[in-house]
Amino acid sequence: MRLGVTVPGYELFLRLWLGVGHSTMWAQAPALVASVTGVVAVYLAARWLGCRTAAALVAGGILALSPVSVLYATRVKQYSFDALFTIVILVLAVAVIKSPGSRSRWTLLVGASMAATLFSASVFPVTVSSLLVCTWFARRATRHLRPAVVALAFYGAFTTLYAVVVLRSVPDPLRDSWRANYIDHTGVRALVSSTWHVLDEFTAGLFYRHGPLGPLVLVALAVAVCRWRRDIAALLIGPVLLALALALGGRVPFGGGRTDEYLYPCVALAAAVVAEHVLRWPSLSRTAPSALALAVAVALAAFALTRGLQHARANPYPAVDMAALISAVDLARQPGDAVIVGPLSRHPFAWSQASAPRLVFSRQYATGFTIASDDPDVLVLPADGFEGGFDPGQAVTFAQGRQRVWYLVTDTPASDTPAAVQAVEVMGEQQLVDAGFRKVQRIDVFGGHADLLQRHG
Known about the structure:
Shape: elongated
Number of helices: 20
Radius of gyration: 25 Å
Order of helices and strands: HHHHHHHHHHHHHHHHEHEEEHEHHEE
Strand content: 5-15%
Largest sheet: 5 strands, mixed
Strand order of the largest sheet: 4-1-5-7-6
Structural class: alpha/beta
Helix content: 55-70%
Number of domains: 2
C-alpha cells in the first residue's frame, strides 16, 4: 500500500472507504458529510461562545456559502475535514482556557491536535496556535503550567516525528506549485505586493470577489474581536497570523483557495462575534431575537439560491464525464489509431477506464505518482507543467508512423483552473498540429472532448 505525501490519515481512510464502494457518489459522500457537519458544528460553537441564533447563523452561513467550501463539499479531498477539525480544536481550546488546570481537557486538546495533524498537516497553524494560546492562559497559575508544558512537549515530539517521516517526503514539484502563495520578502515592495496578493486571494475564497474590500473586512473583524472578545481573540486570529508568518517563511501556502479552508472557521466565528455585538445595538436590541434569526436565514437562503447556486452550477464535479468520452472514442477508433490523454486528464482517465491503471511512483510528480497505460496504442502524458517529466513533445514521438491520433482533453472551468495551467493540457495537441496533423473530427462530452487528428499529406 502506498499513501500520499501530506495527508496520510485521510488517504488511508479513503483507501478503506473506496474498498467498500467504487461509485463517484460513494467517493464524494465523506467530503459532503464533513462539510455539512462543519456547518452545524460552527453554528453550535458560536452558540456555545454566547452568540444568539442570528449571529451563529452568520458563522454557519459563511462556512456553508463561501465559494471554496461550496466547491470542495463534494470533491474527493480532505479540505472539508480540515475545517471540521479546526472547529473541534478551537472548541477544545476554549474549554482549556476556562479550566487550564484540567488534565483531561489538555489531553483531549492534544489528542485532537495529533489526530488532525495526522489526518492532514494543513491544520498545523491552528493546533500550534491553540496550544500556545492555552499555555499563555495557563501561565497565570503555577499549578496549571505542568499540564501545559507536558502537552506542548508531547505534541512537539509528535510533530517532529511527523515532519521527519511524512513531510520530508513531499516532492519538490508539489512545493513548487505553492510558490505563488508564499510571501516574497526579497524587498519592501515585493513584501507589500505579495502580502496584499495572498490576503486578496484568501478573502476572495470567502467573499466571492477580489479587491480591497475583502482584506479590509478581514482586518476589521480582527480589530473588532480584539476589542469585544479578548478572551477568545487570540484563538481566532492566531491561526491566521501564524499561517501568514509561515507563508512569509515559504513553509505554508496562503491564499491558495482550497488550502485555506482550514482557516475559514476562524473567520466565521469572528464574524459571529462581531454580529453578536452589532445585534446588541439599541436600534436592533428591541427587535425580537426570532425575527432577527429569520431575517438572517432568509438573507442566507436568498444568497444561496442566487449567487451560490450560480457558482455551484458553473463548477460541477466531477468536472468531466470521462467514462462517456472513453466509450465514444473506443467506438470511433480504427485499428492502428493512437490515443493520447492530456496531463490534466490522466487521473479522471485512470478512474474511468475499464482496466486498472498502472501507477508510476516518483518524487518528480506532485502527488508522488503518475498514470501510465499498458496499451501500446495509448499514451497518458505523465506530467503537468510544473512537474519533472513534462514534455509535450512526447505526443509527436508517440505519433510517429501513425496516421490518426485521438487526443483526449478535459475542459476545466476557468474559475477552477487558471488559463495558463489549462493551456498545458493542449500543448501536446498543438505540437501534433505543428508536426503536420490536422483536426478532422471532434467528440464532445460534458466537461471534455476528444479531437481526431489525421496526418496531412
